[in-house]
Specification:
The protein contains three helices and no strands. It has helices spanning 12-43, 52-66, 72-96. Helix 1 (12-43) runs antiparallel to helix 2 and helix 1 packs antiparallel against helix 3 (72-96).
Amino acid sequence: MSDTGVRTLSTPEGIAKGSALGSYITGTLAETLDSLRRQMVDLGDPAVWDGGAARTYRDQTLPHWTAPGSGVFAKLAQELQTLQQAIAEVNRNTQAAGGNVPR
């Protein structure tokens, strides 16, 4: 998408915050979500957690969250990747347009 004719601005603070958010998404947040997913999977083991509610968790909740490609974690990873790419694109486009200083 072209920003032709549109005011383009990116302060050093904006560039830094955009970069920091992108790094957070691909680093800390990704690691935290992976840890959460692993803990959820561990609770799906009947040797760890069992009973009526635990069976419901194993049969319904866990697959809803962890199904490869279609579970909540997979969809969230896709959305976060899209967000990270959008942030990077804004920073690239702004820099390319010469909008790296307030006007």
